[in-house]
Amino acid sequence: MSSDSREVILGVGAGIAAYKSADLLRRLQDRGYRVSVVPTPSSLNFVGAATWEALSGRPAHTQVWENVHEVTHISLAQKSGFFIIAPATADLIARIAIGRADDLLTNLILASDVPKMIVPAMHPNMWNDPATKANVATLRSRGFTVLEPDTGRLTGNDSGQGRFPEVSRIVTEFDAMTGNKQDLLGRRVLITAGGTREAIDPVRFIGNRSSGKQGVALARAAQLRGADVTLIAANMDTSTVDGVSITHVESARDMQVELAKEFKTCDVLIMCAAVADARPVTTLSEKIKKAFFTSIELEANPDLLAELARQKSHQIMIGFAAETTEHIDSARSKLTAKSLDIIYVNDVSGGAIFGKDVTHGTILLRNGEEIALKEVSKDALADLLLDYAIRQLG
Ligand code: C5P
Fold this sequence. Notes:
Elements: E1 4-12, H1 18-30, E2 34-39, H2 49-56, H3 72-79, E3 80-88, H4 90-98, H5 104-111, E4 116-120, H6 124-128, H7 130-141, E5 145-146, E6 150-153, E7 159-163, H8 167-178, E8 188-194, E9 198-199, E10 205-206, H9 213-224, E11 228-234, E12 245-249, H10 252-262, E13 268-271, E14 278-280, E15 298-300, H11 304-311, E16 316-323, H12 327-337, E17 342-347, E18 358-365, E19 370-377, H13 378-393
Parallel strand pairs: 1-2, 1-3, 3-4, 4-5, 8-11, 8-13, 11-12, 13-16, 16-17
Antiparallel strand pairs: 6-7, 9-10, 14-15, 17-18, 18-19
Helix pairs in contact: 1-2, 1-8, 3-5, 4-7, 9-13
């Protein structure tokens, strides 16, 4: 499993500032990071696991002894792109500097070589103690980013350097470390998602298994990177995505109408929707009685993507393909036939991928490049496709 640049571990040490990390967690999520919280056992005296689990929507493990069969310390370490340890106490800093692995967090830190940020918070005497100074210097020399604590009033009556920094400063510094970018600022991204339904009668339709999850992941990722995003959603569970304008459609022809309104002004079109290739020649206004429901005459739907490709001016166009056989060859033909810049082909044999949070497949580019993806989250694929789109936008 490869690490994911939006997957972050938030390590929480046993300082009173732990409660401020609840807000930090929220702000990180707002920036598009998906955060797993790993509190040290003693930090649970300040903020309990229930708070972290509720806020992150994920389990909050503290010990290597939990879920041993999952080898949590290795699997979590492998999938995470970055660490942020906040608050880091003098003791936690000392344990990391010395290479201890006596709880899950310190195990993870040792097991992972991704960039790590440490946000210290402690009494000024502890921060200024030569032992802490030496430990901080050691960590910095090993590539850890250690923030300077703020100066001011501490929990008691004392004041000095040792306060947990303002959350906005932490987030800015963290973004700088991760390279989180707003590289779609001022761009319009149009995305279709879900699967069209072609009505047979008021009750029945021809549909497909597309859940719309990949389209939502794309919309969210583009929005977080600063784009103005419109999502044309066909028959999906998701009805809203923060900051994204959504239009709901049912059939391929409804989608065609909405695309026609939006295409000219978009910079990137991502046709993630599974569009039905054909529709019934007639849609009956009354339910067809069982005895007469024996065959359905079909006619071809327009190929929406191919049509738009003919009107394309500056747009980057990304298509999706779901194949069960000869997937690379058919996707490459579609890339050419539909004049696409990029196509992502899923191997959906055996019902894989539909409705799941992970995908596997291949990205094909116009210049012949092929990027095979073994197993990635749909969020990670979304970011990767946007990276390629931006590369081509110039
Ligand atoms: O169905 P097919 O494999 O040809 O789909 C490839 C791409 O073409 C997808 O991005 C899909 O959204 C788009 N498509 C379309 N209109 C159709 C069929 C597919 O725009 N009628």
